[in-house]
């Protein structure tokens, strides 16, 4: 049977027009796939005290075997602008024994914290893309924002104020103020639920037109061509189901954040806005950098053991370093050492509580297929392992979430594997098959 050119063009709703519909792009923000994958990096400076941080052995975590730095993973009370938090130890896998020493030649370089390729003894700036950007190449798809980098630090030095890079040391810019994040992402979206409902209604009507057009065209096709059209329509109907499922998304826009907040208030607002951006599928890659290596302090939090107004950097160095809390100088050595160690535990616990706030916020954010944490992998990282010595041979990594079937509630030890092994393990959970990764190259961490 011959089909005239006019008849063929009338049937182009099946053959031509569909590829140009938004709904035919299954990884767009407006039509998320059934199994979206998201990555979040959470950076805190100055490492920790490895002896008080890392679990004593591999195996299951429990509320009874958490180390001193991790006890708040059982839950904690409200703290200034931060609400009380639920237990998160079941949502986290602790990773120890990863050697970052070979990657970075500088003693303090947040820029290298997401990198698994050596800087070659250079300026401590990644020469290859950081982990978040590697993943963005595969999971960002056509979301409005390939990645979102949020950091309240005012430091714009390339090694201190940024932790996300593309190949060749090309820095990914970062938002420094939550009000600017809100204005950029959500201004004008006064009622996103109604707007999204209208969009879904229009797209559903387009699909109805396509279905009817296909029926008309099928009357003039042979059996083989009809089968091809039916196969094509099956994919269309799958997209239709995906559109319908987006009605369950809890994408509710809050009021604009206040301006002029200090660092902790800014970071909390950035976490909230970042989680909202993930929920609304504006991005699938979120980078949260709490501070540079110098500016994080705990003024106003009344932490135990005399942390006071000392900066995190001064607390991390304990005794003997020039960048130390000098109020311990006149005490007997044993007493000064006890207090200095206790202070690092307190500041490490503080950072864990902030990480717990992020995880609880992600668990509370519902999506069509569950919640954000189920669809994500969240990496807790720092530029150092031992904050006192600047040692990076045993980094304080935590992983949370369940993307790709990742298992939590456990401790995993590597045998001095380079950072590339950790990143290789993470990348594989996103369905990107890699046998080895990084420089030096390494395969995944066994058991992770």
Automatic annotation (TrEMBL):
Spell out the InterPro entries in the cross-references.
DUF1552, TAT_signal
Q: What is this protein called?
A: Uncharacterized protein
This protein's species is Sorangium cellulosum
């Amino acid at each position: 049977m011959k089909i005239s050119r006019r008849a063929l063009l009338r049937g182009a709703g099946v053959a031509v027009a569909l590829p140009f519909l938004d709904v035919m792009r299954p990884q767009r923000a407006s039509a998320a796939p059934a199994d979206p994958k998201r990555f979040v990096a959470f950076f805190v400076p100055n490492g920790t005290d490895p002896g008080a941080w890392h679990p004593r052995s591999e195996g299951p975590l429990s509320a009874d075997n958490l180390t001193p730095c991790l006890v708040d993973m059982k839950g904690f009370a409200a703290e200034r602008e931060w609400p009380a938090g639920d237990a998160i130890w079941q949502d986290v896998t602790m990773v120890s024994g990863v050697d970052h020493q070979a990657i970075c030649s500088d003693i303090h370089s947040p820029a290298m914290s997401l990198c698994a390729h050596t800087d070659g003894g250079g300026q401590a700036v990644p020469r290859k893309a950081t982990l978040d950007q590697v993943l963005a190449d595969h999971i960002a798809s056509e979301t409005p924002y390939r990645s979102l980098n949020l950091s309240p630090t005012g430091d714009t030095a390339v090694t201190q104020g940024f932790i996300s890079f593309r190949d060749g040391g090309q820095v990914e810019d970062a938002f420094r103020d939550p009000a600017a994040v809100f204005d950029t992402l959500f201004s004008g979206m006064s009622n996103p639920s109604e707007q999204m409902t209208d969009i879904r209604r229009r797209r559903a009507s387009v699909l109805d037109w396509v279905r009817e057009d296909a029926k008309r065209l099928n009357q003039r096709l042979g059996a083989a061509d009809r089968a091809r059209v039916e196969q094509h329509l099956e994919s269309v109907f799958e997209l239709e189901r995906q559109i319908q499922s987006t009605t369950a998304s809890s994408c509710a826009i809050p009021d604009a954040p206040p301006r002029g907040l200090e660092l902790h208030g800014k970071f909390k607002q950035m976490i909230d806005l970042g989680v909202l951006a993930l929920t609304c599928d504006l991005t699938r890659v979120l980078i949260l950098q709490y501070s540079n290596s110098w500016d994080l302090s705990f003024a106003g939090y009344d932490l135990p053991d005399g942390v006071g107004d000392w900066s995190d950097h001064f607390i991390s160095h304990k005794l003997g370093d020039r960048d130390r809390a000098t109020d311990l100088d006149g005490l007997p050595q044993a007493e000064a050492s006890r207090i200095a160690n206790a202070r690092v535990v307190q500041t490490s616990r503080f950072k864990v509580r902030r990480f717990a706030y992020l995880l609880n916020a992600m668990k509370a954010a519902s999506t069509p297929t569950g919640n954000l944490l189920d669809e994500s992998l969240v990496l807790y990282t720092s530029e150092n392992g031992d904050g006192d010595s600047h040692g990076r041979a045993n980094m304080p990594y935590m992983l949370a979430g369940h993307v790709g079937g990742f298992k939590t509630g456990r401790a995993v030890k590597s045998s001095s594997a380079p950072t590339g092994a950790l990143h290789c393990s993470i990348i594989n959970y996103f369905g990107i098959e890699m046998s080895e990764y990084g420089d030096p190259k390494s395969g995944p961490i066994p058991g992770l």
